[in-house]
Amino acid sequence: MNRRNILWSTVSALGAAFAASRANAATETTKLDKLKVVYHLSDADKVNFVLGNIQNHIDGVGGPDHVTIALVIHGPALKAFHSAQANPDITKRIGDFSKDGVELAACSNTMKAQNITLTDLLPGFVSAEKGGVVRLAELQSQGYLYLRP
């Protein structure tokens, strides 16, 4: 074997070792970093679509232990979550999300405009006291990825 072949073999082996160590580090980082996502919902006609996206997200990552999800609702969409008029499918989904640890935040400004309180909403909701858009910004500043389907 000549010097060029020895040098090439050494460089190739070092490159392969470096690539393997980087891939391993990326895998370990992914396992440790739990993705944080906030879904924004204001359109009444997108309620079922967004709830479906959240369920698909939870299922896609292997369950609620692998992701932190928040849902911030304001505007006309909030009416779908009034306990007196919510359909059974939405009621079940919200109950499941609440058990899975999804933060369910209702805009306090929208609640005032709709003349409702937290007790009028399905169980599991918290009030976004400073408003829905402020809560969205707060979560984004905490590293949450923003999704508005």
Q: Would you give an account of this structure?
A:
The protein is globular. It contains five helices and five strands, in the order αβαβαβαβαβ. It folds into two domains: 1-33; 34-147, 3-Layer(aba) Sandwich (Hypothetical Protein Ychn, Chain: A). By secondary structure, it is α/β, with parallel strands linked by helices. A five-stranded parallel β-sheet has the order 4-3-2-1-5, with helices on both faces. Helices cover 48% and strands 17% of the residues. The longest helix has 30 residues, at 3-32. The N and C termini lie far apart (61 Å).
Short description:
With 149 residues, the protein is α/β, with parallel strands linked by helices.
Largest sheet: 5 strands, parallel
The tally of structural domains comes to 2
Average pLDDT, to the nearest integer?
Answer: 87
In angstroms, what is the radius of gyration?
Answer: 23 Å
Count of helix runs: 5
What is the beta-strand fraction?
15-25%
Low-confidence stretches: 26-30
Count the beta strands: 5
Termini, distance in Å?
61 Å
CATH superfamily annotation of the largest domain: DsrEFH-like
Structural class by helix and strand composition: alpha/beta
Helical percent range?
40-55%
**What would the principal axes of the Cα set say about the shape?**
globular
Write the H/E string, N to C. HEHEHEHEHE
Strand order of the largest sheet: 4-3-2-1-5
| Oligomeric state of the chains in view | single chain
